[in-house]
Amino acid sequence: MTEDRVGFFTDTSVCIGCKACEVACKEWNAIPEDGLSLTGMSYDNTGALGASTWRHVAFIEQPRPDGRTQLPLVDGGPDHGGGGGDGGGDLRWLMSSDVCKHCTHAACLDVCPTGALFRTEFGTVVVQEDICNGCGYCVPACPYGVIEQRPSDGRVFKCTLCYDRLGAGQEPACAKACPTESIQFGPLDELRERAALRVDQLHEQGVTDARLYGHDPDDGVGGDGAFFLLLDEPEVYGLPPAPVVTTRDLPAMWKHAGVAALSLLGGAAACFAAAAAAGRPAGRGGR
């Protein structure tokens, strides 16, 4: 992995749900409109990440769990308690801008037969749409369910972390457009340090549920290139609690398959040898 790896730190505690990141992503990457239909369950009008939604701001309205501390108004952040600055009310809003995680151990890379998916010099994972053949192998391989095929042509699309902008020395469009700096871009090691300090700050202010997700290099995907500060369990945000790279066991599986194949070949060779020996005519000494 490159030493100059960059990524995203998304601090959901200051997300206001404005969806500026979604708009900026679509505008810069010329992503087609994908419905904008209200689900009836939320104010969210995009629903989930997909081939035509590379950034998705989740709106989660929930009864405030017993014993949970309302997020205070810190550094101009929103009142996620849902009951005003005085701490009243029995509902709270959780908002989070989701994106491709750009995994350290990316299963989509492992299964792509054409090389359409590749690791960039920035440590990010990008799809080359002109090489993608639409096989769809990467779709079930992703432990986060990020990659999707576009119905119009069958090819897959996802966040590129604005690879073209990075090459020009610019930050990704979504981070540039975020008015609260909920989406932070930079060297991954620096972002991890900054995120740890932010969690400590929130804990000191009584927000004990604040935790990081996807930051640990020792997790099931080797750490994410896009990680998050959450205010509840990952499942609440639609994130898997313990993601694991789906191709983790491939080397062992190929090894076992190779041993089994050699065993079959050895058995077949032994059978042919035995059959040949049994059918061989007797020599002169046997007459």
UniProtKB/TrEMBL annotation:
Keywords: 4Fe-4S, Iron, Iron-sulfur, Membrane, Metal-binding, Repeat, Transmembrane, Transmembrane helix
Transmembrane segments: 257-278
Annotated Pfam families: Fer4_11, Fer4_4
Cell compartments where the protein resides: Cell envelope
4Fe-4S ferredoxin-type domain location: 6-36, 91-122, 123-152
Major location category of this protein: other
Protein name, per record: 4Fe-4S dicluster domain-containing protein
